[in-house]
Amino acid sequence: MTHPESPDQTAMTATSLIRNRYSVRAFSSAPVPEDTIREVVDIARLAPSNSNTQPWHLAIVMGEARERLEGRVFEFMRNGGKPHPTFPPGGAGLTGPYKDRQYDCAFRYYDTMGIARSDMEGRQRLLERNWKFFGAPHAAFLSMPKSMHRANAIDLGIFLQSLMLLFSERGIATCPQGALAAFPDLVREVVTIPEDNAIMCGLSFGYEAEGEQINTVRMPREPLGKILSFAT
């Protein structure tokens, strides 16, 4: 299957890219050309950062390396291994409306996939799709120096958003995943990451699989009035 980049996609504005992008959780196995990946990263590296520190590093697995990593993660879990991210996971410390939104996000996927909220095995299987990269042929791991703090993670977020929008512009789907930071030692066995860095998150990417129900899920956003304040 080919996935040509249409003129409409290459002409998309920042507004349309942001309005129309969504996280894909079922990918085609068709690989993205390496030249396209390099082009995207080469542009994304121009993202701004605090004092131009550019703290990001991107490590990408694909092909045999991707298959090997998936196999090692599931072997580790079958043998009783538990997630052990270097940085606290994104769900840590959530309370109030933030916890409510996290639950709502999960339940939207359960409901779409016909998984009862009491079906713990079904929920676990859906969770484990994270470490299969949702079938994506490529997985990227974003890391930054361990010595840095939360404020520096903002720079990684800017870099990550740049990557996602550039991929979207080229008709390539993405899914940012905190879960991909869960097994840093296994990732390091497969791909080179600077010794002093720690993985913050991952990004699965590729072409969206056609006709997959899970890809119909869309997440709501808070209204403008709840997130914006002015003083004059």
Description:
- Helix content is 40%, strand content 12%.
- It has 232 residues and is an alpha+beta fold.
- It has a four-stranded antiparallel sheet with strand order 1-2-4-3.
- The N and C termini lie far apart (55 Å).
- The model has no long low-confidence stretch (mean pLDDT 93).
Q: What would you say about this model in short?
A:
Helix content is 40%, strand content 12%. The chain has 232 residues and is of the alpha+beta class. GO terms for molecular function: oxidoreductase activity.
Descriptive keywords:
oxidoreductase activity; 4-stranded antiparallel sheet; globular; single chain; alpha+beta; 232 residues; NADH Oxidase; 4 strands; Nitroreductase
Order of helices and strands: HHHEHHHEHEHEH
> How much β-strand is present in the residues?
5-15%
CATH class of the domain at 22-89 and 133-214: Alpha Beta
Give the distance, in angstroms, between the N- and C-terminal Cα atoms.
55 Å
The largest sheet is:
4 strands, antiparallel
Relative helix content: 40-55%
Within the largest sheet, what's the order of strands? 1-2-4-3
Mean pLDDT, nearest integer?
93
Return the CATH architecture of the domain at 22-89 and 133-214.
Answer: 3-Layer(aba) Sandwich
Structural category: alpha+beta
> What is the number of helices?
9
Total strand segments: 4
Looking at this structure, what is the CATH superfamily of the domain at 22-89 and 133-214? NADH Oxidase
The coarse silhouette is globular
Q: Spans with pLDDT under 50 lasting ≥5 residues?
A: none
Computed Rg: 18 Å
